[in-house]
C-alpha cells in the first residue's frame, strides 16, 4: 500500500486477525492503547479525536490526553458530531468536560438542515436540498424517493447528518488521523478493523486514517478502565477501583456530576446514539448488567445496526 501521506510510516496490518483475547489482561489492553496513541500523536501532523461523550470515546480521549502529557506532545482537538438528536444531558456533559479538560472542541454538523429548520421525524422534500446533498442521496446512496425522513437513525439520515458532516470537517481542517472509539467486539462490521485503518479513496471521503486505539477492549474492560483509571484520575480523592452500585453510592463529597461518566449509563443505557434511537437495557447501571451474556447495542436502532457495513464503507465510524 502506498504511504499516505509521504511523511507517515504506519503499519496498517497491526491488529489484523486479532481479537480482544490476544490482549488477555487489562494491563495488556492499556499498554496497546498507549502504544497506538503515542505512534499516532508522533506521526500525524493534524490528528483529531472523535468524541461523543460516551464511554468508548471518553476512554480514547483519556489515553490521548495521558500520552500527550507524558511525552509533551500537542493535544489534538476533539470533534463532536452534532446530529440534532442528542439527549440534553449528553450535550451538558460534553460542554462541562470540555471546560474541565481545556479541550479544543469543534462541532461537525450538516448546517443545511439547521438552515431548513428541520426537526427529527420531518419529511424533507428532495427538491429543497442543495445539489451536493442531492448527490449524496441519489448518486452515493441510490435513493429514489421524492422525500426522506429527517432522522439520525435512518440509513439516509445517518449518512447526511453524521458521515457527511464528519467528512466536511476533515476536509475543512485538513485532519490526517482521526481517533475513533470502535471496538472489535462491539459490532460485526468492526471485527476486521486494524489499529490504523486507511480511508484513502478520495472519491468517498477526504483521504485520512482512522486510529482505533481501543479495538482490543471489550465492554467489561472499558468499564474496568473507567473505574480504575479514568475516574480516579479525573476526580480528586476517588478511590481506585471503587465501582458504584447506583448514582447515590459514591465516596463522600463526590456527586454524579463530578464523574466523567455520562448519567445515562447510571440509568441503564449501555450504548448511546440518538435520543429517539436509544433505549436503556435494564434499570441497573450499565457496568452492573450481564455484559457477557447480552448484546451491548440491543438498545440501538436496529435498522442502522443492520446496515453498518454499508455505512462504514461510506465513511461512518
Spans where pLDDT lies below 50 across 5 or more residues:
none
Task: Give the terminus-to-terminus CA distance.
Answer: 22 Å
Number of domains: 1
What composes the largest sheet? 6 strands, mixed
CATH homologous superfamily label: HUPs
Describe what you observe in this structure:
With 317 residues, the chain is α/β, with parallel strands linked by helices. The protein has one domain: Rossmann fold (3-Layer(aba) Sandwich), CATH 3.40.50.620. The chain is built from ten helices and eight strands. The chain has helices spanning 26-43, 55-70, 88-100, 111-116, 131-140, 155-173, 219-234, 263-267, 302-306, 308-313; strands at 47-50, 78-81, 105-108, 123-125, 147-149, 177-179, 196-199, 208-211. Strands 3-2-1-6-8-7 form a six-stranded mixed sheet. The model has no long low-confidence stretch (mean pLDDT 92).
Task: Label this structure with key terms.
single chain; 317 residues; alpha/beta; Rossmann fold; six-stranded mixed beta sheet; two-stranded antiparallel sheet; 8 strands; 9% strand; globular
Outline of this structure?
By secondary structure, this protein is of the alpha/beta class. It is 36% helix and 9% strand. Helix 3 (88-100) links the parallel strand 2 (78-81) and strand 3 (105-108).
SSE layout:
Layout: H1 26-43, E1 47-50, H2 55-70, E2 78-81, H3 88-100, E3 105-108, H4 111-116, E4 123-125, H5 131-140, E5 147-149, H6 155-173, E6 177-179, E7 196-199, E8 208-211, H7 219-234, H8 263-267, H9 302-306, H10 308-313
Parallel strand pairs: 1-2, 1-6, 2-3, 6-8
Antiparallel strand pairs: 4-5, 7-8
Helix pairs in contact: 1-2, 2-7
Amino acid at each position: 500500500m502506498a504511504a499516505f501521506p509521504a511523511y507517515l510510516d504506519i503499519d496498517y496490518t497491526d491488529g489484523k486477525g486479532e481479537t480482544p483475547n490476544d490482549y488477555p489482561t487489562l494491563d495488556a489492553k492499556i499498554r496497546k492503547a498507549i502504544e497506538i496513541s503515542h505512534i499516532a500523536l508522533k506521526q500525524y501532523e493534524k490528528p483529531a479525536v472523535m468524541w461523543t461523550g460516551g464511554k468508548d470515546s471518553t476512554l480514547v480521549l483519556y489515553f490521548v490526553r495521558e500520552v500527550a502529557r507524558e511525552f509533551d506532545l500537542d493535544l489534538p482537538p476533539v470533534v463532536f458530531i452534532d446530529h440534532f438528536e442528542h439527549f440534553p444531558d449528553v450535550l451538558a456533559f460534553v460542554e462541562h468536560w470540555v471546560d474541565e479538560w481545556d479541550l479544543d472542541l469543534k462541532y461537525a454538523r450538516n448546517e443545511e438542515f439547521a438552515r431548513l429548520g428541520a426537526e427529527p421525524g420531518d419529511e424533507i422534500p428532495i427538491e429543497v436540498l442543495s445539489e451536493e446533498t442531492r448527490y449524496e442521496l441519489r448518486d452515493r446512496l441510490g435513493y429514489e424517493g421524492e422525500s426522506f425522513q429527517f432522522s439520525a437513525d435512518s440509513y439516509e439520515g445517518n449518512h447526511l447528518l453524521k458521515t457527511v458532516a464528519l467528512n466536511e470537517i476533515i476536509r475543512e481542517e485538513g485532519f490526517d488521523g482521526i481517533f475513533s472509539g470502535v471496538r472489535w467486539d462491539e459490532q460485526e462490521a468492526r471485527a476486521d478493523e486494524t489499529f490504523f485503518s486507511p480511508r484513502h479513496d478520495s472519491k468517498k471521503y477526504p483521504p485520512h486514517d482512522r486510529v482505533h486505539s481501543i479495538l482490543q477492549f471489550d465492554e467489561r474492560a472499558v468499564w474496568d478502565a473507567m473505574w480504575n483509571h479514568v475516574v480516579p484520575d479525573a476526580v480528586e480523592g476517588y478511590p481506585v477501583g471503587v465501582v458504584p452500585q447506583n448514582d447515590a453510592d459514591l465516596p463522600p463529597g463526590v456527586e454524579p456530576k463530578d464523574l466523567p461518566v455520562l448519567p445515562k449509563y447510571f440509568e441503564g443505557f449501555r450504548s448511546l446514539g440518538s435520543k429517539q434511537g436509544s433505549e436503556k437495557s435494564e434499570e441497573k447501571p450499565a457496568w452492573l448488567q450481564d455484559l457477557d451474556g447480552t448484546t451491548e447495542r440491543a438498545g440501538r436502532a436496529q435498522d442502522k445496526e443492520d446496515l453498518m457495513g454499508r455505512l462504514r464503507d461510506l465513511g461512518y465510524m
